[in-house]
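Hi Y.,

Following your request, here is the sequence exactly as I used it, all 351 residues.
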Amino acid sequence: MDRKSTVRAAAAQIAPDLTSREKTLARVLETIRQAAAKGAELIVFPETFVPWYPYFSFVLPPVLSGREHVRLYEEAVTVPSATTDAVASAAREHGIVVALGVNERDHGTLYNSQIVFDADGRMILKRRKITPTFHERMIWGQGDGSGLKVVDSKVGRIGALACWEHYNPLARYALMAQHEDIHVAQFPGSMVGQIFADQMEVTIRHHALESGCFVVNATGWLSDEQIVSITPDAGLQKALRGGCMTAIISPEGKHLADPITEGEGILIADLDMSLIVKRKRMMDSVGHYARPELLHLVIDDRPAVPMVASYPSSSHVAPTGSTTDGHDEHTDAAFDRNADQRVAVLRSTAC
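Below is the corresponding structure, written out as tokens. Let me know if you'd prefer a different format.
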């Protein structure tokens, strides 16, 4: 794919509607329209923005969070669905790449998922946060290594991580080794206070430097009225303020526009893609500055599935979507994973 010389990127810091997935979706679609009208070719939304980030789980004890957790299930996004179709249609209509964070419902489990739609509306990436953080572990299941991949898009090669996944250096390195041009970062925002914003800024600037890529980071925003609706406790309300750092960072670690740290807005900056080579000719951490014979990453990028169907070779019927040799790649990968686990158990027993 030909590399564009300049990409206009946008990062949205807006509030969700805490009452309805459809109303939050309407905000997403309108923001896509506004960004495209300003010439944006890529827009990034905050972490699990649709229907909303589970702020309640940060301030409510588990015994009191059941009702809100169930409501999140009811409003969560299935993939694909009318919700994802609407975003895909908007991406296609405006010719813009869209990176959207959602609460994904897969039957009985919710996941923190990142979805990237190319400018023609195709869903080119859907990944799940590999380890929910602290309070989030009461809300979401865990993702797997199959989502740690970089994809080609109209604006270049895109990788994505959510929030404190950026503190997992091996997850970041997995994307760096696949040569991301633009890194999508998503955080919840409106949490923890200024220290969260300060830490976030250090994190995204460091990744830009280390990866030699651009970072487009979006954080969410809550109004005072929304904060009060989450908790009436004035002390706990302090935990739902600050922590916003919507920013666009160059491969040299510089802000390309003043970050948005308060209120709503759309941050826009032009990415000079030649800066990638300018950075990497000096320091390519997965190329001439790497020492793979000393240090290298091994990743299990197979999907993790709870059940594998085993077919006798004489009676196997290839399912729809399988490869032409009669083997389903996902089934084979899952079988291999389960075999690895059985070997581990046998070794443990032998010891």
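Confidence is low (pLDDT under 50) at residues 315-327, 342-351.

Thanks again,
Q.
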